[in-house]
C-alpha cells in the first residue's frame, strides 16, 4: 500500500507538473496573442491616423485651392502672356529659318545631280527620285546636317542681337518702337524730352527730325511732355537697372508690352468675373491675351498695348461704379472712370471713342430705364423721384463731369474741345485729295488700308468665334438664374441674324447694313424687355453693341483699328462660353443624373478643344 501510495503520489505530482507546464504554455501563448493583438491594434491605429492625416491634408489642400481659386485661375492667362511675349526675345524662329536654309541648300544639290544624270526623265518621276535621294542624304548625314542647322541658326541670332556688358539682347523689330525709344532715351540721358534746347529763350524743340527741315513749334522749357508709354519705358529701365547693370533702354522697352499684356490680362479677368463669374473671367482674359491682332501689333515696343489696356481699365471702373452698394463707393469708382478716360487722352489721340461709347451707353440705358419704370408705375413723377433714378443721374453726371475735368487737366482743355470734331476729322482722314492740294500720305500706309468684314471676322478668330462673341451681347440681356420665354425669343432671333452675318452672304453686305443688323437683335430685345417683368441689367449689352458697331466702322476705314474691337469681343465671347458652360452642365446633371463636377469638367474640356481648334 505504501508503495502504491507513493507511486500514486508520484503520478499526481507528474500530472500536476504537466498541468502547470501546460498552464505556462497557455499563458505564454495568450501573452503572445495579446502582444500580437496589441501590435496589430497599434499598427491599425497608426494606419487610421495616417489615413485620417491624409484625409485632413487632402481636405485642407482642396480648401486652400478653393479659397484662392480666383488667384490661381488668374495665373493661367498671366503665365500664357509671359510665355507668348518672351518668344521674340528668344528668337526661336531662327531654328526654322536655318532648317529651311540648310534643307534648301542640300535639296538644290540633289536637284542639280538628278538633272545632270537624268535630263530626259519626266518631271513626275524626277520629283519622286529627288525626294528619295534627298531623304537618303539627310539620313546618311544627319549629324552633319544638324550641326549646320544649329550653326546657321546661331548666325541668324547673332545678326539680330547686340552686346551689353556680359549679356546679349535682341534688337527691336519694328520702326515705330524706335520712335518711343528715342523719347525715352532723351529723358533718361538729359532729363528732358527735347531734341534741341534754346537756353536763351527758354524753349524746347521736342522733335526736329520727323518733319525736317520744318521745325515744329517749340514749347516753354519745363512744359514739354511725353506720353505715358514713354514714361513706362523710362521707369521700367530704372527699376531693372537696379538689379541688372547691363540692361539697356532698348531691352527695357522690350519688356513694356509684356507688362501691359499682364495688366490687360488681369483687367480682362476681373471684368469677366464681375459679370459672370470666374470661368467667364478666365475665358475673357485668355481670348484677349492670345488674340492674333493684339499679339502681332504688340510684340515689339510700339504703344498699341495701350489701346487694349485703357479701354479695359475704363470698363472695369464703369462696372464697379454700378456695382457699388453705397454712394461713397459710387463716387470713388465713378471718379476713377473719369480719371481712366483722362489718362487715355494722354496716351492716345483717339481716346475720345471710349468717352463717347461710355456716355452713349449711359444715356441710352437711362432712357431705357425711364421708359421701363414709366410703363411699370404709370406715373411720370414717381419715375423721376425714385431712388434708382436719382442714383443713375448721379452716376451719369459724375462720370461725364469727371471725364471732362480729368481730360482738361491732364491733356489740356483744347483736347477736350477737339473731341467734338475728332469723329468727323477721322471720317475724312483717308481722303486722298484735299483743298490744300497737298497729298494725304495716310492713303499710302499699309495699316491704314481699308479693312473688310471678312478681315474683321478672321482677326477675331473666325466665323464660329465671332458668332459666339456676338451672342454674348444677347446673353447679357437674359436672367442669370433662368432664361424666360421672351429671352429665348431674343436669343433665337439673334442667333439667326448673327449666323447670317458670319456667312459668305453676310460678309458681302454693305457696311451700314451690316452694322445695323449687328445692333438689330439688341434693339428688338430692349423693346421686348421694356414690358417684361424680369429684372435684367442691359447696360453692358448696350455698351458692347455700341462698341462692336463703331469699331466695325473704323476697322473698315483702316485695318489697324481692328485692335479696338478686341476688348469688346473678348468680354462678349467670355460671357457666351460661361453661359453655355453653366446651363449645359446644369441641364445634363439634372436630366442624366450625372455628378455635376464630372459634367462641368467634361464641358470645360470640350469648350477648350473648340477654342484650340
Architecture blueprint of SSEs:
Layout: H1 2-67, H2 69-85, H3 87-90, H4 93-117, H5 123-140, H6 142-159, E1 161-164, E2 167-170, H7 175-190, E3 196-198, E4 203-205, E5 219-220, H8 228-241, H9 249-276, H10 278-289, H11 292-296, H12 306-323, H13 327-347, H14 352-377, H15 380-385, H16 387-411, H17 413-418, H18 422-427, H19 453-459, H20 463-475, H21 485-502, H22 504-507, H23 511-530, H24 539-557, H25 566-592, H26 596-612
Antiparallel strand pairs: 1-2, 3-4, 4-5
Helix pairs in contact: 2-9, 2-10, 4-5, 4-6, 7-8, 8-9, 9-10, 9-12, 9-25, 10-25, 12-13, 13-16, 14-16, 14-24, 20-21, 20-24, 20-25, 21-23, 23-24, 25-26
Describe this structure in words.
With 613 residues, the protein is mainly alpha-helical. The chain has a domain of 68 residues. The strands form two sheets. It has a three-stranded antiparallel β-sheet with strand order 3-4-5, with no helix packed on it. The longest helix is centred in the first third of the chain and has 66 residues.
